[in-house]
Amino acid sequence: MKKTILLGLALISLSTTSGLYGQTTAFVNVNVLPMDRERVLEQHTVLVRDGLIEAVAPSRRVQLPSDARIIEGDGLFLMPGLADMHVTLPSSQATEEQVGDFLYLLLANNVTVVRGMSGASNHLQIKRRVASGSLLGPTVYAGAPPLGGRNAQDPQGAIELMLARRSAGYDLLPFPVTFALPYGIPWQRRPIPGGIPSEGPFPRELASGAPFPAASPP
Description:
Number of helices: 5
Order of helices and strands: EHEEEEEEHEHEHEEH
Strand content: 15-25%
Largest sheet: 6 strands, mixed
Radius of gyration: 22 Å
Structural class: alpha/beta
Distance between the termini: 63 Å
Shape: elongated
């Protein structure tokens, strides 16, 4: 079986995301899977400086900086990190250990970016802790609590709630499967200042700008 060194595991060895900056790391003599097409770049060196890939070239051609941290990869494989775009992050009832294990498992499977879809207040805390380096994990894009039902009964209230969640730091607004428009809101004619990305079973009519039947009045 081929041995593979995954980028997620490499990040674990570098301790924290914030620790990537201000240092240089060289993965030496690795077999790189660039994933632009089906090929393997054998016996290459990948040079990472301040968190950015600076060079990918045959090892014999790369001059290693004197201060570089060297990770020997002879006989191993290196590939880009993966992104999981539909993740249910741990709830507010999860323990610190459970949150840490969940995020570590993602990294151990080479997932370096996740998009949370369930929407809970503690997900903002997870996102910020990972970004600061105080919690080891993949980069987190946090979805807001879903819009609809009892929390969006009128047009202006729905818009204000969307803006408040964007201001709080949520990255996107998931729509539930049973999403119904608040009564009387012509969504395609009410632009949201600054906008907020959305995800889920978004009604096709909203994307096309066609009229969409609102929910019946209470």
